[in-house]
Amino acid sequence: MARPRNDIEAGQERLVEIACAMIEERGAHALTMQDLASRAGMSSANLYRYFEGKDALLEAMAEYWFRPKVAVMEAVLASDLPPRRKMYEFFARRFVLIRDAWRADPVAHQTYMELGEEYFEQVRSYVDLADHYLCEIIGEAMAEGFFAGLEVDEALSLVNQMVAPYCALSTMTMAMERLSEDKLARIIDAVFDGLSGVDRGARSVSGLRAA
Amino acid sequence: MARPRNDIEAGQERLVEIACAMIEERGAHALTMQDLASRAGMSSANLYRYFEGKDALLEAMAEYWFRPKVAVMEAVLASDLPPRRKMYEFFARRFVLIRDAWRADPVAHQTYMELGEEYFEQVRSYVDLADHYLCEIIGEAMAEGFFAGLEVDEALSLVNQMVAPYCALSTMTMAMERLSEDKLARIIDAVFDGLSGVDRGARSVSGLRAA
């Protein structure tokens, strides 16, 4: 579901907003198609003209939740920033959006997180999209000589692991009070200046001798 | 509770082993003092000679679960490895212990994770102890010129964030299938070669211009 283009899409958008208000007030488990129809002042039969079932509704809610995050990722991708700045903004702007929502209403935030864990199928395509965009930034960085000796997929996995608290939603929620844009900037600088496919001594082939 | 030194401690150790077997078989919520007494073939009154309540039992179970992890951390700390190797082994050996337990019985592993989240007070002292040891390694690294411009506490927070999937138990559990010693070694090399208090361009003071 993109931004509304016709009456059905406008109706879907309005229903998603009502459904989000309902779960923010009463938790994820309070959401039923019948309650949504009632709250929207329409019959259940009419509601099913907009969403053929709860899965379709949840998919639209995921799209609605992720839409501003996708927008900032796409704005960063389209910018002419150097790769290091791009990667920082890619994670930082998304992180700030989510942190601000968490600060405004931590209980509502937790409700969306639980909903996302329960209906991960509706979330997975956004995780894949973010990985796709991150691969583009990694490719630009590699063209400038960064991440020498790593394949794009290896670099993708390593970067996602090194910034996990600013990226993986459940990890972010748990660590939120210890996260900051300053720390993220230090980590992205470490990614660019320290990450490569060359073994520089962290792991010894012979294992731990002295312990 | 350290390793058993007298009859009471030997009895506590045996009861902890029985309690662990019970939650591995039946889940965290199956554990009651009454069931434990019954399974151990003793009266409830006798059980309370060993543990004055469920909190004391859970504390002993946490000590039992963390004991091998503390042992590998202490062995690494006592070694004469250089700081880079030490930090890798510090995270890697603990990670391998937990991953092997997860591989052997993922359901039991999940039960311990849920128990740890529910009774976090019993877990916190081990988190603090791990941070204390990690600070020692960071101090040794700083003495060799690494992490220039960072305070020990800043470096501690940044390192914990950069290795979160190998360190924070719930993050580790979610990411387990994508984690490896090879990736951890690349991350520790990036920590040592890339992490400092010097801004190298990830974050622009003027913000994002082009997006």
UniProtKB/TrEMBL annotation, chains A, B:
<feature type="DNA-binding region" description="H-T-H motif">
    <location>
        <begin position="32"/>
        <end position="51"/>
    </location>
</feature>
<keyword id="KW-0678">Repressor</keyword>
<dbReference type="InterPro" id="IPR009057">
    <property type="entry name" value="Homeodomain-like_sf"/>
</dbReference>
<dbReference type="Pfam" id="PF17935">
    <property type="entry name" value="TetR_C_27"/>
</dbReference>
<keyword id="KW-0238">DNA-binding</keyword>
<dbReference type="InterPro" id="IPR001647">
    <property type="entry name" value="HTH_TetR"/>
</dbReference>
<dbReference type="InterPro" id="IPR041478">
    <property type="entry name" value="TetR_C_27"/>
</dbReference>
<feature type="domain" description="HTH tetR-type">
    <location>
        <begin position="9"/>
        <end position="69"/>
    </location>
</feature>
<dbReference type="Pfam" id="PF00440">
    <property type="entry name" value="TetR_N"/>
</dbReference>
<dbReference type="InterPro" id="IPR050109">
    <property type="entry name" value="HTH-type_TetR-like_transc_reg"/>
</dbReference>
<keyword id="KW-0804">Transcription</keyword>
<dbReference type="InterPro" id="IPR001387">
    <property type="entry name" value="Cro/C1-type_HTH"/>
</dbReference>
<keyword id="KW-0805">Transcription regulation</keyword>
<protein>
    <submittedName>
        <fullName>TetR family transcriptional regulator</fullName>
    </submittedName>
</protein>
